[in-house]
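Re: the request from the purification team.
They wanted to know what the chain is likely to look like in 3D before they choose a buffer screen. I agreed to run a prediction and write the result into the notebook, where they can find it.
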Amino acid sequence: MKRLVLCMLFLAAGLFAEEYVTGNKTMDLKVENGVVRVFMKGAETPILTIKPSMEGDVVADTVTHPDSNYKILSLRTATSSVTFKMGWTAPDFTMSLNRGASPVVVDWNAQAVIVPDVYAENFVIEPQEKPFTLPYFVPMYAALTQNGDAMVSCIPVKAGQHAVLSGDLKTLTLNQRNTDDYTFVITVAKQVWHTAKLSEELNKPVPVEGWTAPFIAEWQASLPVDKDFIPAGDGIHTSWYVARLEKNDKGKEKLQTQMPRMSLLDVASRNTWTSGFESTFHYPVEIADGKLLLCSPRFGNRDRFLHSFTKNVYVYAFGGGKDLPEGVILPADYLPKWVSNNQLCLTSNYGRSPATCATTNRVEEIFRKDEAKEKIKEIRNRLAAMQFFVESIRARVENARVSAQEIGAFADRELKAVPALAPDVAALKATLAEVENLYEKALPRIQYPPEVIKMSAELVKLAESDMDDEEKEEKAKALGRAIRTIGGGQDNLAAHMRHVGKCLRFQALTAYGNATTQEARDFWAAVYDKTSWMLQAYYGHEGR
């Protein structure tokens, strides 16, 4: 009897080239000779091939959970096991690696891998010569695969060890420390992502041939950068929400997607402005009538920040889909609430306070209309609210400085304990130095917030005076310009420091991925975590 049971189990394992199938409405897992292949229903080519490293005879069996919501497929030997938990309706499954089951190799044939980062820009990994180590502490990473028709998101739900991505991005090796869980989310839809090149046309979007958005969603685009004004940022991608243009009942075009961290100046031309670069440019990526349009976002100081015309732009559906094809789920929509609560960037409430430019423009208008005396209360209230803006921006500037100093002090302590980290610490310090460099250059222009209080008091005093109206107006203009100089300087400095924080985050992920020692990986993992101190709050128009 025992022999008969063992024989049946071996047959189930596919040891004689038979297939064992367990699945749901959208996806099948097929097991053959201890190898698991993941197919979408009706497909002939697997999206994933999972090869557990298991010595000895592999037994495959399944258990249907009593509530019938999911099945459990188990591959096991006498000493180890790999378990797959798969539901009946959602296109996802969780793989648990138990002690002794490492490593597991996942063939997914990626063309690029996206590491979403809501604090900074999404991190894009492209093919390179050496393997790249993916950290276990990021909320997810998503492979763009199947030539534009699939994305595979991996969420290291409970992982104590990093994963290694091959240099050509085609395989992912999952290492195991104790019992590690990885959830895979399969997104399959025609043209769910696309690659293209930027157009060299300035302020003129150019249609991308051969691709049409298959459904309405929150699309994102990663635009490659050739040169950044901070060396640690060279070679990165900038992430943009794709603006969606639709026509209303009267045939007028309207932007349906709000672009976060950017200030839209004109809906008709889609011109935008951002702090830190002091320039207006065309929003670079949009979808109109389902067609993708791209152009290069050229900033004012073009010799310091250049996007690439030769590297790939990646456009992909990431979340926000309401009317999706059956069985399709997008990566950002899947992430559990606890990840969102802990990882999402916190937008500062201070952003609703009036800025120096809008406030002083209104005050100058009051003086120009000779209404200063009767509107003295409005002037006082507006200037008081503006001061809150000035103080909060400066607090964030000082927070960035303190954060950089604390990261530098951490690096010094680590170097003392592990002298072999000298090259890593030197590279980090070079980027951190940019924070104080920016501050010292800006200080003569931005002065200090109490200077704005003095100027505001002079404006109130001027409004109350019996001075000639024309003289009042000229003095009000001069004070307004001085206040805007301080406010605008602080605003730009805060944006630049935020940019340094992003570059630090990119630098940490890049260094972690290419590190060859655990000490270096631990060091850069800590730096990555600490950069969030510099990036947690921002105003609506920052981000580049």
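For the purification team: The radius of gyration is 28 Å.
Please add any questions underneath this entry.
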